[in-house]
Design goal:
10 helices; alpha/beta; 270 residues; eight-stranded mixed sheet; globular
C-alpha cells in the first residue's frame, strides 16, 4: 500500500508498505527509487516479511524539495517514516547512497527501531576521493556529473547505468533501471550527488552497535571493494559476504545469492 508520510520540514515522503511480519526497510541508491528492490520484495513477501520501501525526497513519488538533501535530512526523513508506522525490530537495508544514509541513521538516531543492518555496495565511509583518502571517485568527476545533469540528464543516466554491472545485462533490464532514474527529479539528483561528494560517515560507522551484514561486489567500479576492510574495522559486529561475479549492482549480477544471504542473516538469532 502506498502511503505519504510527512518528513523533515513537512516534505511528503512516499512509502511502499506491503505484507505482514518482521519489517524490512529499504533505502535505495542514486538515482533510483524504492522499486529497484523489486526482486527482493518478490523473494521476501511470500516468506512472511513486511516490505517498507522509502523514496528519498526528490526521488520516486516523494516531494521535490528545494532545500537540503544532506545525509542528516535523509536520515531524519527515514526516522519520520519509522515513527509514523510504529516500526520496531526492523531490518534496515541500504544500497549505495542508501547505505551511507542508513549508516548516518544508525548513528544519528541511535538505531531507532532497527534490529539488524544490511549494507549493500555501500558508499561509505565516503564516496569521493580526498587528499587523505585515495579510495573513491574524484570530486571533480562528481562535479562534472552534476554539470551534465543540467545539460543532458538522459545521457548521464545511461552512462552511469552502464557502470553498474559486471555480468552481461539485458537491454530491457537496463531500460527498466533507466526509467526508474528518469522518475527522479533533476534537482534531487543534483543535490544528493553533491551530498555524496562532500559527506563522510566514518565516525558514524563506529557508532553502529547492531549486527551488520556487508555485501559487496569484487568487481565494483562505483564503490570499490577496498572500502570493505575499513567497514569491518569500524563496525563492531560484521559479517562480510563478497560477490565475486558482481559489480555495483549486486541485486542484478547475483540476485539469488544476495536474497539467500540476506535471508540467512535475518533468520540468524545472533
Amino acid at each position: 500500500m502506498k502511503k505519504m508520510i510527512k518528513g523533515t520540514n513537512h516534505a511528503s515522503i512516499a512509502v511502499e508498505d506491503v505484507g505482514d511480519g518482521q519489517p524490512i526497510v529499504f533505502l535505495h541508491g542514486w538515482p533510483f527509487d524504492h522499486q529497484m528492490f523489486e526482486y527482493q520484495y518478490n523473494y521476501f513477501l511470500p516468506r512472511g516479511y513486511r516490505m517498507i520501501g522509502i523514496d528519498f525526497r526528490g526521488f520516486g513519488e516523494s516531494d521535490l524539495v528545494i532545500e537540503d538533501y544532506g545525509y542528516n535530512t535523509l536520515a531524519d526523513d527515514a526516522k519520520s517514516v519509522l515513527e509514523d508506522l510504529h516500526i520496531e525490530e526492523a531490518i534496515l537495508v541500504g544500497f549505495s547512497m542508501g547505505g551511507a544514509v542508513a549508516t548516518r541513521y544508525m548513528a544519528r538516531h541511535k538505531g531507532f527501531g532497527i534490529k539488524k543492518l544490511i549494507l549493500i555496495s555501500a558508499a561509505v565511509p565516503q564516496f569521493a576521493k580526498k587528499p587523505a583518502y585515495s579510495i573513491g571517485i574524484k570530486k571533480s568527476e562528481i562535479t562534472a556529473m552534476v554539470e551534465q545533469i543540467q545539460v543532458d540528464r538522459p545521457k548521464l543516466i545511461q552512462d552511469f547505468i552502464k557502470k553498474l554491472f559486471h555480468e552481461k545485462t539485458l537491454v530491457s533490464y537496463k531500460g527498466w533501471l533507466t526509467n526508474l532514474a528518469f522518475g527522479a527529479s533533476s534537482y534531487g539528483m543534483i543535490l544528493s550527488a553533491l551530498a555524496m561528494r562532500d559527506e563522510n560517515v566514518r565516525e558514524d560507522l563506529e557508532k553502529i552497535t547492531v549486527s551488520t551484514l556487508i555485501c559487496h561486489g569484487k568487481k565494483d567500479t562505483v564503490c570499490s571493494y577496498e572500502v570493505v576492510e575499513e567497514m569491518t574495522q569500524l563496525i563492531s559486529k560484521t559479517i562480510v559476504v563478497h560477490f565475486r561475479k558482481s559489480g555495483h549492482a549486486i541485486f542484478h549480477d547475483e540476485t539469488e545469492k544476495l536474497n539467500r544471504t540476506m535471508l540467512m542473516f535475518i533468520q540468524n538469532k545472533n
